[in-house]
Specification:
mainly alpha, two-stranded parallel sheet
């Protein structure tokens, strides 16, 4: 099963890469740059909205991956949420699917997405949702993981 496979996994060896050439810029410059390389207007709007959320709403760290559906399907096993035996990784939730269900069908442009993103990135001593959270399904769940966002904004 997936849990057994995950617990017996070997340590991953890091690949030696060249140092990153990090540059700083204003959001307007970033927007102009992104517009050149993103495949369509909706992809640009989605990336722009997530940059805005990361800069304006995040209360802590966040890992955000934005890509086309094809790119996600190429990167992950065919059934992205099942334990696969193939060479590709699978997507697994650490919170019993809480954030997936909370944000299912909610566009990144919707205020409910911003609220959930802000709550998720809020640090706690346990890195978990508080035991008294209004949404009972969140209580005690880990706040670990990444936001995998399709260019469509979902």
């Amino acid at each position: 099963d997936c849990q057994a496979a995950a617990s017996s996994a070997a340590t991953l060896v890091s690949t030696k890469l060249h140092p990153l050439d990090v540059k700083t810029c204003k959001r307007e410059s970033l927007g102009a740059f992104m517009r050149k390389f993103l495949p369509h207007e909706q992809a640009f709007l989605t990336v722009q909205r997530m940059v805005d959320l990361a800069c304006d709403c995040a209360r802590g760290g966040a890992l955000i991956v934005i890509a086309s559906r094809d790119a996600f399907e190429e990167a992950f096993d065919e059934d992205m949420q099942e334990c696969g035996n193939g060479p590709k990784p699978v997507v697994q939730t650490s919170d019993s699917g809480y954030m997936t269900e909370r944000l299912r069908g909610v566009a990144v442009s919707h205020p409910d997405f911003a609220r959930a993103f802000q709550e998720f990135t809020e640090h706690s001593d346990t890195d978990r949702w508080p035991a008294n959270h209004p949404d009972q399904a969140a209580r005690g769940q880990p706040k670990d993981g990444a936001f995998l966002i399709n260019f469509s904004g979902y």
